[in-house]
Write a structure and sequence with these properties.
By secondary structure, this protein is α+β, with helices and mostly antiparallel strands. It contains 5 helices and 8 strands; from the N terminus they run ααββαββαβαβββ. It has helices spanning about 1-20, 25-30, 70-90, 135-145, 165-190; strands at about 40-50, 55-65, 95-110, 115-130, 150-160, 190-205, 210, 235-245. The chain has a 5-stranded antiparallel sheet with strand order 3-4-2-5-7. It has a 3-stranded antiparallel sheet with strand order 1-8-6. A hairpin with a 2-residue loop joins β3 and β4. The radius of gyration is 31 Å and the shape is elongated.
Length: about 250
């Protein structure tokens, strides 16, 4: 029995020395008694707007011909010209990447059944435009290069570095949550304590701008009208959920 107690004493001593060697914050969390369970749960929101400084284009070519070989050849030629137009507008090769390539049979449906009409080849890329003042020229030149085969699916405006915007929105969200919690505490006749947990969700309001399939190529640069593009503003929003203790 004495031997058992001795071993128990040794184990307890080792446990205490291990906790003492740990970070003080860890020890305090381990030894901290649980909260009373009397809490207030609130959500807070903070939003900051800013001008976008980058745009992502999703564009490509779509070709339909009687045979796969004909469709693939024309699509390859059109896409090569499109990519060259992007590079000519100072879009780096690293900022151009293939998003999709597909070949599908196309059918006409009649009372007698389906009839093979030909084959469709689609090839799309995602291009990152870092100079927004060149965006109209990028789109117009791409449409001219791809001609009747061009497809511009969407434009997505973004803020490349949102660190500062998130920081500001996060601060506003915390203040918003604290104000709500204090109002609830005052109305309930209790004293608001410290926050126990905080969870965050960040999102960006930046809807893509859809584009229909472009029409025929332009006769020459002097006769065409530039495509108007308006970036507008983007909103960075941080939502948080905070649990406060009630003292």
């Amino acid at each position: 029995m004495k031997k058992c107690n001795c071993w128990l004493f040794v184990i307890c001593a080792l446990l205490i020395s291990t906790l003492t060697a740990c970070d003080s914050n860890v020890v305090s969390k381990v030894l901290m008694p649980p909260t009373s369970g009397r809490t207030i749960h609130v959500t807070g929101s903070g939003s900051v707007t800013g001008e976008p400084d980058i745009a992502t284009l999703n564009l490509g070519v779509s070709v339909e011909k009687e045979t796969v070989a004909e469709a693939r050849e024309e699509a390859a030629s059109a896409m090569t010209a499109l990519i060259e137009s992007l590079k000519a507008n100072d879009i780096a090769e690293k900022d151009i990447n293939t998003e999709n390539f597909s070949i599908y049979p196309q059918y006409d449906y009649t009372e007698g059944g389906r009839i093979l009409r030909g084959y469709s080849v689609n090839n799309t890329v995602r291009a990152k435009v870092r100079e927004l003042d060149t965006l109209s020229d990028v789109i117009d030149d791409a449409a001219e290069a791809g001609r009747d085969n061009i497809v511009v699916n969407s434009i997505q405006f973004m803020i490349e570095d949102t660190t500062e915007f998130q920081k500001q929105a996060r601060s506003l969200a915390v203040k918003n949550a604290e104000a709500k919690a204090q109002t609830l505490a005052d109305a309930s006749g209790v004293t608001l304590g410290k926050p126990v947990t905080i969870t965050e969700n960040t999102y960006f309001e930046s809807p893509p701008i859809p584009f229909p399939v472009a029409e025929a190529a332009f006769a020459d640069d002097s006769a065409r009208t530039s495509t108007p593009i308006v970036p507008g503003e983007l909103t960075v929003t941080v939502n948080i959920t905070v649990v406060y203790e009630i003292e």
